[in-house]
Design goal:
The chain has 279 residues and is an alpha/beta fold. It contains eleven helices and eight strands. The longest helix is centred in the C-terminal third of the chain and has 13 residues.
């Protein structure tokens, strides 16, 4: 791990794992410490992962001004990391809500993106958010699971914004609700800065028409990876998102939900490394 200083003076931490060409990784949550990304299914065997702890998460310091948790304000942090690494252009992988930060960074600094991988990312920055109906439809794909009835009841509470929903609804975020998935899900709260989470999507964070217009000039190739069982975003929403990127391609990983590197690591790593290795 190393630290560097953001333009506003906040000390940020970045964890380094693996070997090979650099790949900057932006976590989701929103505002979840990067530790949940692990080795991204074994991607560390092919790339050096630079896993950024966003401000106020993990080993990164809490900023003096909490309004800087807003997604658009954090593009300066990503640019500071690029400068610290001495990269003219960089490959970036972003998961889930982190894809919004990646989109805003690419719109602001298109010349700094070599290749961009967006993993199961519903992009509010582009005016594209998963709807409750899409989430319910994806959840019902799991109707054959023995845990479905109990988990679906809790999922409905979550979709209604109730704070008494049991963690069992997390089952829908994993392709297999096994011991590994339950352990991964159980650590979510301790890894997330809830104060920052609320501010990440604050008013003013996004201007979808302006971001779409800026991304229309992005020349970098973009891979959008969807999980066949994911509802946020479902594969159809990922395909609609791809239309915002001039050089985009979509891949749907069978049997995967929101964490495809856990649900099918070999498939995930093969698809991502193939994309990143192209000339």
């Amino acid at each position: 791990m190393f630290t560097f200083t953001a333009p506003d003076g906040t000390e940020l931490a970045c964890h380094v794992r693996g070997s090979g060409p650099p790949l900057v990784c932006l976590p989701g949550g929103p505002m979840r410490a990067s530790v949940y990304l692990g080795d991204l299914g074994g991607l560390t065997g092919h790339r050096t992962l630079y896993l950024l702890d966003l401000r106020g998460t993990g080993a990164s310091a809490v900023p003096a001004d909490e309004s800087t948790y807003r997604c658009d304000r954090q593009t300066d942090d990503v640019e500071a990391l690029r400068v610290h690494l001495g990269l003219d252009r960089m490959d970036v992988l972003a998961h889930s809500a982190g894809g919004n930060l990646a989109a805003l960074y690419a719109a602001r600094y298109p010349e700094r993106i070599a290749r961009l991988v967006l993993v199961t990312s519903a992009q509010r920055a582009l005016g594209l958010a998963a709807t409750p109906e899409e989430r319910r439809a994806a959840a019902r794909l799991r109707g054959h699971e023995p845990w479905f009835a109990a988990a679906y009841a809790e999922y409905e509470k979550m979709l209604a914004g109730r704070d008494d929903a049991d963690y069992l609804y997390d089952a829908f975020f994993y392709g297999r609700w096994d011991e590994r998935a339950r352990a991964h899900a159980a650590r979510t709260d301790e890894q997330t800065n809830e104060r920052a989470e609320v501010r990440y999507f604050a008013d003013g964070a996004y201007d979808p028409p302006a971001t779409r217009a800026a991304l229309a000039r992005l020349d970098a190739p973009v891979l959008l990876l969807a999980g066949a069982l994911d509802g946020g975003p479902c594969p159809d929403l990922v395909r609609r998102t791809a239309a915002c990127y001039p050089r985009a391609e979509v891949t749907v990983q069978p049997g995967a939900a929101h964490y495809p590197w856990l649900d099918g690591p070999e498939s995930f790593v093969a698809r991502v490394t193939d994309f990143l290795a192209r000339a």
